[in-house]
């Protein structure tokens, strides 16, 4: 059986490892990248079934990155989940305004991701 692919874009390796560990426990293959350029390189050459983006990545315009991801998935529906430590409601609204499918707050649990994947029909 082919595993679905979870692309994790976070410039802090520990955050990517936590999300990756949870996604692997849900039988996803994971790809961790630490920059917008690496994310776009993977998206244009690979297949992702879901993308986690860190809201506060250094030197990254998250709005531009999301737009570029959406433009490069070649007609596929690929949910983009914003992961953040920032609890502000304003951030949630901003994320949805730029076409995020969901916002999840760190620290992240397996139950949160499983529920979210089910809601977004990622399984």
Q: What is the terminal-to-terminal distance?
A: 13 Å
**What is the top-level CATH class?**
Alpha Beta
Give me the CATH architecture, please: 3-Layer(aba) Sandwich
Residues in helix, %: 40-55%
For the largest beta-sheet, the strand count, sense and barrel status come to:
5 strands, parallel
Order of helices and strands: EHEHEHEHEH
Average of the residue pLDDT scores: 88
- Assembly type: single chain
Percent strand: 15-25%
Main sheet: strand order: 2-1-3-4-5
CATH topology: Rossmann fold
User: Can you tell me the CATH superfamily?
Assistant: Response regulator
Low-confidence stretches: none
Q: Count the helices. How many?
A: 5
Number of DSSP E strands: 5
How many structural domains in the coordinates?
1
**Shape, please?**
globular
Integer-rounded radius of gyration:
13 Å
Based on the model shown, name its key terms.
123 residues, alpha/beta, Rossmann fold, 5-stranded parallel beta sheet, 21% strand
Could you walk me through the main structural features you see in this protein, from its secondary elements to its overall organization?
The chain is of the alpha/beta class. The chain has one domain (4-119): Rossmann fold (3-Layer(aba) Sandwich), CATH 3.40.50. It is 42% helix and 21% strand. It has five helices and five strands; from the N terminus they run E-H-E-H-E-H-E-H-E-H. The chain has helices at residues 13-25, 36-45, 62-71, 89-97, 110-119; strands spanning 4-9, 28-33, 50-54, 80-84, 102-105. It has a five-stranded parallel β-sheet with strand order 2-1-3-4-5, sandwiched between helices. Helix 2 (36-45) packs parallel to helix 3. The chain is globular, with a radius of gyration of 13 Å. 25% of the residues are buried.
